[in-house]
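Hi V.,

You were right to ask for the full record rather than a summary. Here it is.
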Amino acid sequence: MFTENEVTEKLKSAFISILGVDAACVPTASIGKTESWDSLTHMELMLRISQDFGLGRLSASEIVSLDSFDSAKKFVFEKLRNESSY
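Predicted structure:
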């Protein structure tokens, strides 16, 4: 299980690495606002999130809904919380 800080830091690392943004830009990163966030980097980011947190295959609706750092963070917290309740 990941702590809240570990989740946030892992996600920040993925966003910095894949989108090539500064750490200060990560909290406000989103599709349409972050120039480097295109369809290819979006899929790379989804794959990284899935792998880093052991989430398995993401559905099409999940992939589409993860359009910002904030939405990705909320999604990962929810998925990990649901998995730990089994």
